[in-house]
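Hi team,

As requested, here is the filled-out complex form for the pentane-1,5-diamine run. I kept the field names the same as last time so the parser does not choke. Let me know if anything looks off before we queue the next batch.

— J.
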Amino acid sequence: MSEAKRAPALGSLTILTYLFLYAPILVLVAFSFNESRLTAEWKGFTLEWYGRLLTSPQIRISLRNSLLVAGVTTVIATAIGTAAALALGRGTLRRAGSLMALIALPIVVPEIVLASSLLLFFAALGLRLGFLTVILAHVAFCVSYVVVVVRARLSGLDPSLEEAAADLGAGPWRTFFKVTLPGLAPGILSAALLVFALSIDDYVVTSFVAGVGSTTLPIQIYSMVRSGITPEINAVSTLLLVATALLLLAAHQLERGARARLAAAPAALGLAVLGAPFLAGAGAAGSSERVLNVYIWSNYIAPETVRKFEQRHGVRVNIDLYDTNEALLAKIQAGNAAYDVVCPSNYSIQILRAQDLLLPLDHSALPHRVNLEPALLDKSYDPGNRYSMPYFWGTCGIGYDRRRTGPIDSWDALWDARWKGRILMLDDARETLGAALKRRGRSLNATDEGWLRDAQRQLIDQKPLVRVYDSGSFDAALLSGDVWLAQGWSGQLAKVRAENPDLEYVVPREGSSLFVDSLAIPRSAPHPELAHAFLDFVMEAEVAAEICRTMQYSTPNRAAVPLLPPEITGNPAIFPPPDVLRRVELIEDIGEATVLYDRLWTEVKAER
Ligand code: N2P
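And here is what came back:
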């Protein structure tokens, strides 16, 4: 091919490649200016979401945490990495080659491995998860990058300069500060900027080792994704993107040997973008010292409700979210997460109680417990409610778009090949295996290995039809039309109807699960008194009614019911009629068989 012909082909290939790389990001940036809350449609230009970032205390606090972590990490990792690069690069060490390979290892080790080993390590040391663990973890994965970058610069440095300095009578320290360090400076600075960008961006490692109060921006963004606050996420992601791009540009300039001044502009701009929301709202939040740390299911409490508690008690409430009982159990069992209030399902209460991880409640501090429905109290998983107070209950069922699928009343619909690629299943061992067991008319607390293997087989057969396993945003997936049928929990599936009346909820005729999720206080809670106040607060009739109205799971609060509008009390998804209640079964702790459930479910997900 001639030069002239090849060039345009190469040119369009390049454009296509860049488009492939950047189109999703451009969409995100564009939609951060979209007036509509829904991602799918463009309604006009707005800066509202950027404005909200300035006023959201949660974002500001997490941004401040991110800046703090990234700042300290940068200083420590750069110092350690530079020293290591000098030691390795000056040929004074034997076996520098293999040492170098060891140092580069953290760059290639899968992040998830690094994350879980760090978590285990901190637990073994008895370190409480928080800023310290996050910073140590970030330093651990950043040092390698510093060594690589600084060493590259070092190898380009002419050793005769140092020799000349020594010849002229300078001692080793003087030579280092007058000759070596200035020569290395661009490399060190560029490494520092890289570390800063890596640290401010990290999600996986941080999500493992962060404790309460050390939520960083990426973690905050992810938890917002799960509660469906889309446009604000697009805005904050855009800011993060612009800032990291500027920092990397500065690092690149320095590496290319440009003058520090050229790199200073993008670096300063990048830092300014990150600092702006923080400075703009400084002093507006975080003035109170007392903090309550709540770890609860996503879509279980509205920000307005939390704000009322904050105002009444003059405290700040941190809300962290999860979507499976297993995630909650893992955090509490690790023993070093400082949550004050948690919301386990009935069978998890049994597990936590057996491990002595819950604090006995002081009933005298919970006067509003008289509002609770007696039928939901004093259950076998917590006799006398010594450890827990019911918060929400509900059922598992199928949400579906009746315009697409017609009426549905059986689990079989989720195995119907006509809906291939339009089915969502929960990512939850007990619920998925449970649905398959029910489909055969068996109990979802079955422990018979043969029955369980049969349930697993069904799920493997179903897998080609399943679009996604997701316990957090099954409601959003239905609303956006990505899926037409979703296994999911009642509240969120009741709620989507307001936006699309064609979305129905059914508890299949073969039967399904019932859950009672309760608030409890971990034994390790740093603020047990405030935790009691929170438990009592959500049992007040008006508050419980607000929680039910906003989240639409079923309230165990008898006194709240008369305060609810007829759309809620008359909605069979929220207040199931007796025939539905007859066919649901409480998920129970099945002891040793839990391991089998987990294994079978993991195998389903691993299946290709
Ligand atoms: C809330 C899910 C309901 C909890 N996002 C099921 N136990």
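Two things worth flagging: Residues 297-300, 345, 489, 515, 517 surround pentane-1,5-diamine (CB under 6 Å). Residues 281-288 have pLDDT under 50 and may be disordered.

Thanks,
J.
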